[in-house]
Protein 1
Amino acid sequence: MSPRPDLRRAVTIVAPLALLLSLLVWGVSSPPGSSPDDDYHMASIWCGGAPEVGVCETTGDPDARLVPAEAVRASSCFAFDPNAAASCPREEGMVVSTRGNWNGESYPPLYYAVMHLFVTDHVSTSIVLMRTVNAALYVGVLTAAFFLLPRERRPLLIWGAAVTAVPLAMFIVPSVNPSSWAILSASALWLVAWGFFEQRGWRRVFLGALTVLLIVIGGGARSDAALYAIVGLLAAGVLAFQRSRQYLVVGLVALTFAITAFAFFLSGGQSSIVTTDGAVDNETYPFASLAFINLKALPHLVFGNFGFWGLGWLDTYMPAMVSFTTLMVFAAVTFWGMRAGDWRKWLTLAGVSACAIGVPLVLLLRWGVVVGAGVQPRYGFPLLIILAGVALVGVATAGLGLGRVQLILVASALVIANATALHTNIRRYVTGLDDAGINLDRAVEWWWNAPISPMSLWAIGVAASVVLAASLIAVIWPTRDSNAVTDLTAASVRR
């Protein structure tokens, strides 16, 4: 027996709204300037358009710009100090900044140009608006991908997003950091491209358009995200492989997508990792020793995405309940998915795994640094998203064949981890982490000029995650006579 049609319809509305609300709560759980290198990214956003008085003004130095002081000094009193609340005094006027993307040497300019559209006269309002836009974009793209994908592919999208909905993702997606778009691109591109190979007619057209959009989103934000887009396209090509003329024709179109992604990669300064210009002279370790040291410590970097690495300015560490729980869920679900598959899956999984390990290692060796310096886990996080999804390919049911107790445990673990992480993140900025109390409304040193309190915001975030988990569990709840893939939208969407 499959879930009732009215339940399926309700979930298609409730689940995206609950996800959006959860991301929005995370988006306002921290102040302006709280995401990594926000002074650089905020200055780049404010200067993402033509010079404008009071927004971004030129100086006599081509490497410097005048930008609002509040934008570039928002984190001056709390960055790198987890015990300091975000109670920085508001600074008026314009200041000179030499940290920005105005010379186009580091990041692709597209992300900053789009975010610049949401710059207002009030810095805090602008930041909240940008975070809201990025959260809505994430939910909108994933929802569109879900409805366009073949029925049997939809669970891969849901489970891949669920097991990688770790604090890092929940924090970065609704932020002004370009990594927000990199995560979005990786979350859906490989599946959308796979659907492009499989579908026919108008669905193929829309899936192709969505593939291009995701390439532009990822490559327009970070050059490495363009490389991950190529990985996603290759994964889709291998998974969809068949000996047919139709596959060849579609594959040639996909090749143009890959060329487009590579062009985005070359457009940014991060492409220097493949040239001699990207290397750093290392005088501390011989190359072999540097490689050996980094190989031993690499799991800390790869799995740092699950909370073993600090959020924000790498200063907000998650409790063990968060990091170990999210890692265990990710490992358990992906390992469970490996019980089924064919040569296409195993080849793809091997390739993505090699990239997930090789990319951070190459960066470490090219930059002449060891784990803990220069390279952050979030740089390779998009590859883990792809890896999680590919690991589940070939599993027959929407519930992955998990029993009722197993599904409840997975959902409960993710909800508890999210609630704990959100509480920790709010606490870090409201009072600093030296105050370990559960009541976020006590002794508040920083908060938004809003009618909702920190504790109320946390409660809303927890409720949203509970509703999201419950709505998805409801439609994949196993029944004795249910063996087929659960279609979450069978009543409203027909292949």
Protein 2
Amino acid sequence: MVELTDCPCSGVNLPRFVQPVILAMLAEGPLHGYLVAQQLAETPLFCKQPPDATGVYRVLKAMEQNGVLRSDWEQDGGAARRRYALTDKGRSCLAQWRHTLIAHQTFLADLLVFLRSADKPSSSSSSSSSSFCTDCSALEPFGNLFPAAGEASPGGDPARLFSGAEMDTHTFIETLKARALRGAPVSREDILRLLAIPPDSEEAAFLGRTARDLARIVAGNEGRVWSAIGIDCRPCSMNCEFCAFGERWGLITEPHEWSDAEIIDAARAFVGAGASWVTLRTTEFYGLDRLCALAKKVRAAVPGGYGLVVNTGEFGPSEARAMLASGINIVYHSLRLGEGCATCFRPEDRKATLASVRDSDLRLAHLVEPVGPEHTDEEIADVLMEALANRAELCGAMARINVKGTPFESREPLSDLRLAQIVAITRLCGGVRVPDICVHPPVRQALDWGANVVVVETGAVPRDTGECSGEWRRFTVADAQALFREAGYAVRE
């Protein structure tokens, strides 16, 4: 057997990544030098043998001289011990490492696709900011092999190396992942090929694993909760066939509206529990002036860095500006499956509102919804393309809930596997441009296949026959966080 112990292919240079690992450890708080060495030994960089303590102290000294670390002496009843902490330059350096490694991971993904082609002969035919630390703008183990972020990779775009139609499914998925990490757009044909994969196949499982890998990179492996408050519960004359609020169905017999105090209390509870977004959801005719006034009150009463979202009717550019002025920064709006058939809304009106969001400073959340088993690959692809074309920053998929008493009550539900597959596709197609991918209702399989956002909602819910006094289906923020942990996501408390 050929020994490759000392060859670069063995990964012997990996310990030279010790600097970003030290920076990441100290980002959690100051540490004594011996603890730095101890924690380094537990990382994958030193899985075969622990680091040399003297060498670790040399690295720490060099990092301090470079200004990314500072140290002081701590007297704790015995001998004084030197303690190391990050400086502001060190935090910038850590941020630059993240940017650099993501860019280089993109190159590696491209390279792996190219190397994989060696087994299949028939198949062949973000720039760094100057404000960051410049000492780690290039990774030493690889010299000048890597291009700067935003430059072309050696060998070019894998899409130019292969014809998608000629690639096997695994290589096709790997190529799309590489493109996703560069922020490259996908085509409708790419989406259709992914949707055509049988959800229970090995290829779908590979798609799911690839999407989960992407979530670790572009979402920072963080699970996030989207909270929603249904403000008004009343019959709606638009009569969407999947919505419990349609006045023709007669399910809402006692109109009700939450008070400002009730809304603020719910928002405060959601934010306090760890929700990343608070959504004010209204019926079509609640009124934008009222909604903007309410948003101002919520912002004033509930401090925090959460996203304030509205989910309401159609609007134009002037209304978008008013929303921004009131503290709203995100709009949930979608071109829904069956628009104009299962709904009374004109697709062009929905698209006009999407354009108003896109052309403003508001951010867009747009799921592929409400999905049933009868929806074709073409329909799903068109809605996803609409979300991506309008620069949605949160995407994903929502399964249709067939509410008793609506025209859809006797329809078959969407399978969890198919829902998870659509979620995985939105992750792969969104890439770095769409960091957050949502699944609703919460399905563990979808989390395993790339979703990092689930919804907790209360009040008027169009997927129920009445108003929910607590959380819909008793699914709380704590339940969502527990589900994330089970799926291997980090949760910000």
Protein 3
Amino acid sequence: MIICRKMLIILCLISFIRADIRVFNRSTGTESQIRTLSNSKQLYMSARDFSGALSSRLYENQERKKLVLYIAGRRIKISAKSSFVMVDDQPFQMPVIARERAGDIYLPAQGFLHILKSTTLPGINYDPTREFLDVDVVRFTITAIDVEEKSNGTIVRLKTRKPFSERNISSFINKHGWYYLTIAGGLVDTVALNGAVTRGIIHRVESEQIGETAQIALKLRSNVISHEWYQNLDPNEIVVTLRTPLGKSSRRIKDVKDRWRLDTIVLDAGHGGKDPGTIGKYGTKEKNVVLDITKRIGRLLEKNTGIKIVYTRTEDVFVPVWKRTKIANEANGKIFVSIHVNANPNRKIKGFETYLLQSGKSADAIEVASRENAVIKLEEVRSQYKELTGENLIMATMAQSMFMKESVDLAAMIQIELDKKIDSPNRGVKQAGFYVLIGASMPNVLVESGFISNPSEERNLKKPGYRQNIAESIYNAILKFKTSRERILAEE
């Protein structure tokens, strides 16, 4: 009997052999060891030692034999004699139950680490043959939120440690008035965000880590007329704009009606003087083509309407970009139309398109904006220009957001009318960041009336009759826009 008892003790000692897992923490550059227990089928690791190796916070309930580990913003709950791990209240099952030894909880190493890698620490790698654990504790990549109220909306800035692929960012507003921004591959500091101070249209912030995706939810106090997000790279942040309607007092309505009476139009012939714009294969200069088209539009309006026409230039002179919208605003212009012709290294591309002031949504739009914006290099003073990216662009578009719908309508009308008279592809209405449109406190568009880089289209643009067709198309669009606005005002 005594021999049997001794044999049983020996077998138990053999069945649980202590060993160590070596750990390298890349975040701190430190090495450590995790105590283990093993039998023929399973290796168990100390939860306490694991927490220490990661320099994570640990909460213990010895009476209930429970441990809570706080790792990378997640709350990991483990219990002795249970095979379940709770990650932020979501259960995950290990292959076997956790064991309790000397007040510590020992977890099945491979099973627990697999759960942790898929939910919390993608940078964790375990080699069971070497009993080696390589850990890169991922810091929060979404660290803070800042809310700023504006007269026509609210700007939300999410501070990030790195840029994200725009393919992995999406947003929507549900029917209950929640704005959701999801960032695949993001790791959000829920404590920092959920305790943020709110203002403006933002009533509450709720953030959540769902697997490898960060979700930021904003409870809105009222409806918004539009929303968009943009990623800044310096500093790293994701900027969300939530635009709201302006107030509707009777005085305000009267002022708006007076403001909308389309009695002054500003026509802007792009480039000029020392800035030739783009030049075609046969030497045709953009500045000359667009000046002729612009003056033809103006003559049609002056002859057939009582509208006052203001030109940013009427001859071959250089006009700084900032001065063009200044002229428009000082003249109390009701719409601003900037006339250009396009270019592309691919000489086969041709057609016409109309642009709105927004962040470029395509590589082509961004390329067009970059080319047109290059004119500021010719200006003697450039201090008034900020980089037309990120927050600066958003602020500019927010300042003009009250005219966005009207700008869209005008752009669509221009494309329709050009399509009727011009034998060239309709390339549609697009968005891009043009300096020349910034600051125009009125509906504004930029018309690219053809590709001077295309030989056949360059030949057409040299013809007075073709330029007249372009001018008549834009003129007809302006008249239709005027009629539509006056009809709306009559109904209000």
